[in-house]
Amino acid sequence: MVTFRNLVLFFLLLTVAAPILLYTDSYTSTKTPFSKREFLEDVTSLTFNSEENRLNLLYRESPPVDVRRGVVGVVYSKQDSDSPSITRDQVSARVLSATDDETQSKTDDTIKQVTDHAVSEIDKPNVMHASDEKAQNGERMHVQLTQKTSGKVDVQEPKDSAADKERGNVMMPDAQVRHLKDQLIRAKVYLSLPAAKANAHFVRELRLRVKEVQRLVVDASKDSDLPKNAIEKLKAMEQTLAKGKEIQDDCSTVVKKLRAMLHSAEEQLHVHKKQAMFLTQLTAKTIPKGLHCLPLRLTSDYYALNSSAQQFPNQEKLEDNQLYHYALFSDNVLATSVVVNSTITNAKHPSKHVFHIVTDRLNYAAMRMWFLDNPPGKATIQVQNVEEFTWLNSSYSPVLKQLSSRSMIDYYFRAHHANSDSNLKFRNPKYLSILNHLRFYLPEIFPKLSKVLFLDDDIVVQKDLSGLWSVDLKGNVNGAVETCGESFHRFDRYLNFSNPLISKNFDPRACGWAYGMNVFDLDEWKRQNITEVYHRWQNLNQDRDLWKLGTLPPGLITFWKRTYPLDRKWHVLGLGYNPSVNQRDIERAAVVHYNGNLKPWLEIGIPKYRGIWSKHVDYEHVYLRDCNINP
Q1: Of 595, 560, 590, 593, whose CA–CA distance to 577 is shortest?
Q2: What SS3 state is found at 341?
Q3: Which of 107-116, 249-258, 351-360 has the highest mean pLDDT?
Q4: 325 to 67, 207, 451, 612: CA distances (angstroms)
Q5: Do 333 and 365 meet the contact criterion of CB atoms below 8 Å apart?
Q6: What confidence tens digit (pLDDT) does each residue in 602-621 have?
Q7: 3-state SS class at 269
Q8: How far apart are CA 210 and CA 227, in angstroms?
Q9: CA geometry: angle at 98 spanning 92 and 99, to 5°?
Q10: CB 202 within 8 A of CB 245
């Protein structure tokens, strides 16, 4: 009876428990066939090309996976995908997150990018040195899969690995060309050593290799210019040089020879620099054929006009102190036209601007004809001939007397001075021209004017200059931009401070200033008798012991403690010698100055600055076309 009862209870329990066990087993088998520990072990032991790269999984607490949505975020290993015999239940499924479909798709794409990137990095050929390769093999790819609410995967590669790769792969630019040129130098050393010269076979072989390498590098400035057989020639030369090293193993002899070669190269460089300086100065003195043709054509047409057509309009404005007056002394017609055109182009009220141009006898007719044929809008033009200034003679002006002296002529034209590079920059015809010294006689030239703006002919105006007439010079005569930003623009670079007259009266570290754009108060000039100051110092410098030639040194002396510093934005210098002038300073400047030998109308002008000047020249003008003057 008891046995029968137990049997009934057993079957009853089996009937109740069986469905529960079956449901639980189905649930667990659907969720994941692996334990959490097995999952982590499998993920962290992923390998690529037999190299272990551990994946450190950073997981977070998340709500339980909803099995009704199915298994998501499955990643298959390469081994699994390549094995057709493995069933789906045996595939290494990895449940990464339970997110919505959109976020999950982003996660899948990111994981694919990570794994593809890892494989591509490992598959790259290793071009590093042995020591770097050993260090690289010690590195492990460090991937952080951070499951955030957005489901994104963050990937971090150690910076040291990238740095090591970069160090291992860096090569000198055009290394083959450099190497070949270095081989030529070494070959020349061996060919000049006694021990190598004694081996006739080696000398013949080395000379043959030198000719081969010279043919390779004669037209090659970069590796891509070299022919396909360059590597073979390089290796052959290296083998021959190795033989030379065996023949001549005395390092001290090689060092002495290299020092001698270095000294010889330095001497040649000095000679070439001297020649380049001389040629630059010579080019700066010459007049291009087109600029020589232009005044001839203009002069011919000017004298063909009747007398009434040779006159400029608005001559009643020439002495009106309510207007803006400019003084411009030049014998260059084209350069003068650029100054006038650029000034008028940027002027707010062109009709209030008056240009007083003084030139020499040879260019007087040409200058007048140019502005008669090309009037500057509503502005007023006056052209004068310096020969008509009867008051300007050698009895009144010491500089005129000095310029016509025999010693000055010998200084300029005697051939034995041609090799003295220290004086080359002073041996320029402009220093012999009285036009260059007229700036010291402004009150005599314009006796009824109170203030004038002096402009050189190698400047370009970029902004309206009328504001300069309202600048208060505070009792000074000259308003100019200082140029003491660099040491060579101070007084000791222009004046001879070994002379007691200079050392007692001036400060060697005083700041210099620039000619080219200067505001002169002519009333104050007359009050302080500036012209007499200039004459006194010129008489003291008859033997050129106080300063060399030029107008800036006597200007620094004459206007000592009489110069008011203008804002630097008014006047930017250096476009005639310095290719590195700050572009922002050029753009902000009211006036840019091509001081130096590289004038924009010469072929040696700095190309990057020529456009600022040439945009004010109409190259389609009939006179310029006939004289073949091109940009």
Answers
A1: 595
A2: helix
A3: 351-360
A4: 93, 72, 7, 24
A5: no
A6: 989 999 999 999 999 999 99
A7: helix
A8: 16
A9: 130
A10: no
CB atoms within 10 A of CB 546: 19
Q: Are 578 and 598 in contact (CB under 8 A)?
A: no
As a whole number of angstroms, the distance between CA 534 and CA 440 comes to 7
Count, residues in the chain:
631
Residues 392-409, mean pLDDT to the nearest whole number: 83
Number of neighbouring beta carbons within 10 Å of residue 27: 10
358 — pLDDT class (breaks 50, 70, 90): very high
Residue-level pLDDT at 12: 73
Residue closest to 392 by CA, chosen among 559, 194, 590, 531: 531
What's the gap between Cα 105 and its chain centre? 49
Mean pLDDT, the chain, rounded, equals 77
Spell out the long-range contacts of 96-99 with Cβ–Cβ below 8 A and sequence spacing 24 or more. Answer: 96/72, 96/145, 96/147, 97/62, 97/72, 97/73, 97/147, 97/151, 98/62, 98/63, 98/64, 98/65, 98/66, 98/69, 98/72, 99/72, 99/73, 99/151
Six token digits for residue 577: 């010698």
Q: State the number of CA atoms in the 13 A half-sphere of 330 facing the CB.
A: 27
588-604 residue pLDDT tens: 999 999 998 899 999 89
Torsion region of 314: left, alpha or beta (phi above 0 gives left; psi -120 to 50 gives alpha)? left
- Classify 453 as helix, strand or coil: strand
Name the DSSP class of 100.
-
Does pLDDT of 17 surpass 50? Answer: yes
Q: In this structure, are residues 206 and 187 in contact, taking their beta carbons and an 8 Å threshold? A: yes
Note the pLDDT tens digit of each residue in 249-299: 677 777 877 788 888 888 888 888 877 777 776 666 677 889 999 999 999
CB atoms near residue 63 (< 10 Å) = 6
Higher-pLDDT residue of 58, 572? 572
pLDDT in tens, 221-236: 788 888 888 888 889 9
Tell how far CA 322 is from the center of its chain: 44
State the virtual CA torsion across 15, 20, 23, 25 in degrees, nearest 10.
Answer: -100
Higher pLDDT, 468 or 549: 468
d(CA 43, CA 37): 10
How distant, in Å, are the alpha carbons of 115, 189, 374, 498 from that of 95?
Answer: 17, 72, 86, 91
- Count CA within 13 A, CB hemisphere, residue 448: 8
One-letter amino acid of 481: V
pLDDT tens-place string over residues 80-105? 444 444 444 444 444 334 444 444 44
Residue 510 is given by DSSP the state P
C-alpha 427/C-alpha 573 separation (Å) is: 22
User: Residue 594 corresponds to which amino acid?
Assistant: Y
User: CA nearest 467: which of 477, 479, 482?
Assistant: 479
Residue 229: CB atoms within 10 Å:
11
